[in-house]
Amino acid sequence: MRSDDMKPITLDLFADAEVQQPATSQQIGEQSFVLRGFALPWLDRLLPALETVLRAAPFRQMITPGGFTMSVGLSSCGALGWTTDRSGYRYTPTDPQTARPWPAMPVVFLELAQAAALAAGFSDFMPDSCLINRYVPGAKMSLHQDKDERDYSAPIVSVSLGLPAVFLFGGHQRSEKSQRVPLFHGDIVVWSGVDRLRYHGILPLKDGQHSQLGAQRINFTFRTAG
Q1: Is 199 annotated as a binding residue?
Q2: At which positions is substrate bound (predicted)?
Q3: Any idea which architecture 25-223 has in CATH?
């Protein structure tokens, strides 16, 4: 999927009242938190940086090792980007589609990820990878663990923008019951420690229209992969 499939993001939209909402914290696990509205004050820097990344590495729908096409569009930035194809899941320093290095992680991305991690109680977070997902109505992410990273001591920081979604936050076995956590524009989920390998996913995105991003949800997931 091409980056120009996104609704154009223009600075005149940043006057939206959502940006003025205060951030609050909701604990969803022993070491897991939803930071409500945390990303909203960063939007005037975050969204233009996102457009720059997507010009260099447009969204594409990747193939899983089982041969299925993912419903979610993916891109990456940072020293390592996450990819999947018939040979497996992995992090790579170059984009397999272009053979060029992934776009550098914008400074505002890094600052936001570190600020959110610190707000959740995790200091010294230094992500080297940001996976960017695009959900359109009907797209979903099945329950999975983030376990392709070499070191599980660093948190996962996941930023939600655009349409609301239902985040599934389960246990350490796929069969365990999952919490259903609503996520809204500007929310950030942070999990680490004893919760680091919990299964999680996203229910199929419902139809809707967001005032800034249109009929889509954009998700950044920051990790220390290498």
Answers
A1: no
A2: 82, 89-91, 148, 174
A3: Sandwich (2.60)
